[in-house]
Amino acid sequence: MIDRLEELQAEALEKVSQAEELKDLKDVRVAYLGKKGPITEVLKGMGKLSNEERPKVGQKANEVRDAIKDAIEVKEARLEKEALDQKLKEESIDVTLPGRSVRRGNRHPLTSVTETLEDIFIGMGFSIAEGPEVETDYYNFESLNLPKDHPARDMQDTFFITPDLLLRTQTSPVQTRTMEKHEGQGPVKIICPGKVYRRDEDDATHSHQFMQIEGLMVDKNIRMSDLKGVLETFVKNYFGEEREIRLRPSFFPFTEPSAELDISCAICHGEGCRTCKQTGWIEVLGTGMVHPNVLRMGGFDPEVYSGFAFGMGVERLAMLRYGIDDIRHFYTNDVRFLSQFK
Predict the structure, then answer these.
(1) For a surface tag, which of 175, 232, 285, 301 has the fewest beta carbons within 10 Å of its beta carbon?
(2) Residue 14 marked in a binding site
């Protein structure tokens, strides 16, 4: 039996040395060290041996098992290392190659313009106020001197959700809400940026959803000259020091007197051209002194307090600043257009 065990050891070690893959080593392990292998068969016959031979055969069987097991483990480790080296060689990375640059995005032009406008007005002491986009009829119309039968309501074609709820047509409701929070005590000095909605047909100059920034200042002894000073500071900071302004009489139900603000045309410098329709001036925003009824609805005594308000479209200001001729460019998400504003 000892001779048979030595033969099996030599045979197994020869197969281990010839193995070229891990699968071959697994086959050797199962064939010689498994429960149905030849070594196990030899051991099954130990019952026929004498008491003197039995421990010698058992010891030899253990030595053969250990020798085969050790040889398999050594060869297995070498094959695994060779496989890893080959994989690393095939998947090597050339660290001398230049890296691929990551494409960076940029702010949307409307976001950029809004932040610029906020910085200008914050620099003049205004704070930012926000309000809901789904508004009540009261805050969107009635508190702004537009009762239910007022003909000026026809100026704004509205998205109604219920008879009393609607998508706000302007950010002016934020002004009333803010005045209420002050409980009739000034000063109030805010700008209200945000989205507004109107039932307009989308074309080059109109959109059913757009952005506005409205401003409000209420305090004692606020005059039209204060309004002009604020707007002139805004225009020169946003459009450039060389720009001139003018105020034209107009009508808005929530201001009295009301005016339109025009700026001198940057193309023709007031001489007249296609951009300004030969007038030398470009309309920018609507403004005026806050109507006494609006002050009263906001909780302020119009005999004590006065104020001014203004409202401007962010898209219009962006179009004037960057020379954009179609408002739809802001909302079509064309990367070719947006990438110009890095």
Answers:
(1) 301
(2) no
